[in-house]
Specification:
Elements: H1 2-31, H2 42-76, H3 82-111, H4 120-123, H5 126-129, H6 135-156, H7 174-194, H8 212-218, H9 221-229, H10 244-251, H11 298-306, H12 320-329, H13 343-346, H14 352-357, E1 364-366, H15 376-382, E2 387-389, H16 407-411
Parallel strand pairs: 1-2
Length: 412
């Protein structure tokens, strides 16, 4: 029984994975053919599958946890028939996957971002949510959901053939076999759900290109929906210590009221090469020209005397993800939330790279570590960077630190 149970769990995992690879992704790309799918070459298809595989596998592992527990229970309790409950579970999963795949593909042409928890805002008012589409469109969507649900269910139940019809006692060591299956199987599933990198899987794991549609095609919609649903929070009334009138009074002096058309030039060139270096855990105490220790950072001291030195800049927050958003977007860090984690919000933020691109600049970001950390890759793409360079672009022999490539190697 333990051999058949193991084969069933593995088969269920692989079938779920195949449903994402063979059905969900092609449906999304083909349905949105005019939004970028028509530009997909075989190489682009391969890249989409490769970069989305980790999240597809993670989602498949989540969906296989319940079958693992049910077959383990069947090994312990002879009268318990897991097949009956597994059929019900597979039916629910089939409906979930079909709704997710259909809604994700259909909404993208209107929203141009992946299915996430935003859709929950419209469930309570379906009449207005569907007001802009025809009844035929809605009927076609429902038909698509039904067809996909049937296909998904038939595929998922293929694995049930590996299990016997009735319950069967495993003998004296049944509890041991069930425990081994649960512990080893659960450990394997957990490693897939979390990922093998330092930072757990996030939607940013699928971001790899400056072309947004390619990243969206790689991103698993069910994973993205659950991830964003777990992080729903109403920020509208948080941290409002002043009235709007008082806030305007406090902020008004911060913005200059110079003469129209007047430009103050601080540099000797009108088109400088702009390099932003973010150093974490680094302060003015290490820079001699700011009154710090000598000979610790001589080059920073040197360039501070050659350019424009801001001596009253302060950290916008206490975490990497919030500090970077402060630097590139001018968005203040919030005490209990990180806007970088919200893919649908970062796209509306201003960004220094986006502003520079309007003047003909090409932009690139170098983060010699895991760029899926805190959804960072998604943010960098949304800010308009033309190219992303992460630890994946360095040879394995140079990734010798816990957080990727050492600073001196990245600097070179």
């Amino acid at each position: 029984m333990i051999r058949k149970a193991t084969l069933y769990v593995v088969s269920h995992l692989l079938i779920c994975l195949c449903l994402f690879l063979v059905v969900q992704k092609p449906v999304f790309i083909l349905y949105n053919w005019s939004h970028g799918g028509s530009l997909f070459s075989p190489g682009v298809w391969a890249e989409v599958y490769r970069h989305g595989l980790a999240l597809d596998l993670a989602t498949s592992a989540y969906l296989t946890v319940v079958p693992l527990l049910l077959v383990a229970a069947g090994m312990l309790v002879p009268r318990f028939r897991p097949r009956r409950w597994l059929k019900v579970y597979d039916g629910l999963v089939a409906i979930l996957l079909s709704v997710c795949a259909s809604v994700d593909a259909a909404l993208y042409e209107f929203w141009e971002f992946k299915l996430d928890a935003t859709v929950l805002m419209y469930i309570g008012d379906p009449k207005n949510a569907l007001a802009s589409v025809s009844k035929l469109y809605v009927l076609s969507g429902v038909l698509c959901i039904v067809v996909l649900a049937v296909v998904f269910y038939l595929a998922l139940t293929l694995a049930l053939r590996l299990l016997p019809e009735g319950g069967r006692r495993e003998g004296r060591f049944g509890w041991l076999k069930a425990s081994v299956l649960t512990v080893l199987g659960g450990g394997a599933l957990f490693s897939m759900m979390r990922g093998l990198r330092i930072w757990p899987n996030t939607p940013g794991r699928a971001v790899y290109s400056s072309v947004t549609f390619r990243n969206n095609a790689a991103l698993n919609p069910l994973f993205n929906f659950v991830y964003t649903w777990q992080r729903r929070e109403d920020f509208s009334r948080q941290f409002r210590f002043f009235t709007e009138e008082k806030r305007e009074e406090v902020y008004a002096p911060l913005f200059g009221q110079g003469k129209t058309g007047e430009t103050e030039r601080l540099l000797s060139t009108s088109r400088p090469n702009i390099l932003v270096i973010a150093l974490e855990g680094f302060g003015s105490v290490f820079i001699e020209s700011l009154g710090g220790m000598p000979e610790v950072a001589p080059n920073l001291s040197r360039i501070s005397e050659q350019g424009v030195l801001f001596t009253q800049c302060y950290c916008g927050s206490f975490r990497t993800d919030r500090g970077i958003v402060c630097i590139l977007s001018g968005y203040l860090g919030q005490p209990t939330a990180s806007i970088m984690r919200y893919s649908n919000k970062v796209r509306s933020l201003p960004g220094l790279p986006k502003a520079l691109k309007r003047y003909g600049y090409s932009t690139q970001v170098l983060y010699a570590s895991d760029m899926s950390f805190f959804n960072m890759s998604d943010y960098f793409v949304a800010m308009g960077h033309d190219k992303l360079v992460s630890e994946d672009d360095f040879p394995q022999s140079q990734r010798t630190c816990k957080w990727g490539v050492p600073d001196h190697v990245a600097f070179q």
